[in-house]
Amino acid sequence: xxxxxxxxxxxxxxxxxxxxxxxxxxxxxxxxxxxxxxxxxxxxxxxxxxxxxxxxxxxxxxxxxxxxxxxxxxxxxxxxxxxxxxxxxxxxxxxxxxxxxxxxxxxxxxxxxxxxxxxxxxxxxxxxxxxxxxxxxxxxxxxxxxxxxxxxxxxxxxxxxxxxxxxxx
Length: 169
Hints:
- The chain is of the alpha+beta class.
- It folds into two domains: 6-76, Ubiquitin-like (UB roll) (Roll); 84-166, Translation initiation factor 3 (IF-3), C-terminal domain (Translation Initiation Factor IF3), CATH 3.30.110.
- 34% of the residues lie in helices and 32% in strands.
- It contains four helices and nine strands, in the order E-E-E-H-E-E-H-E-H-E-H-E-E.
- The chain has helices at residues 30-39, 61-78, 95-110, 129-142, and strands at 6-7, 15-20, 26-29, 43-48, 55-59, 84-89, 114-120, 147-156, 159-166.
- The strands form two sheets. It has a five-stranded mixed beta sheet.
- The longest helix is centred in the middle third of the chain and has 18 residues, at 61-78.
- The radius of gyration is 29 Å and the shape is rod-shaped.
- The model has no long low-confidence stretch (mean pLDDT 88).
């Protein structure tokens, strides 16, 4: 079977709870439910196999599958994608460059993206770990009205990383 729903003779339960249009809802034996579906020229579809007894619906199977796909598509379109933008600078960043990066981060946060800010220590600049941490904290403080710090600065290899999430509107 190519669908995740059992239909007709593939339903294994002895009794089923029958639902659907033009059908009297209730508990029926499987044979009786199949006969009712056949009389209406429709298909018996098991929609809730874990219920006791399993819930089956009398419906046009192709229409049922179409509606299920439509619901899935709708749910998928309502999910929001989290965008993460990266901003990188060194521990000895100049004031102008710092403000330039700050403006970019501000725009990213206003557009609803998370910002991953990291100080990259090149070569011997690793001795300026404290300076790098101070720069990251200054960055976070400057963006206080646009986003909140999700994770404090932490050193991973040659990078000191911090995440800033946008404030809820």
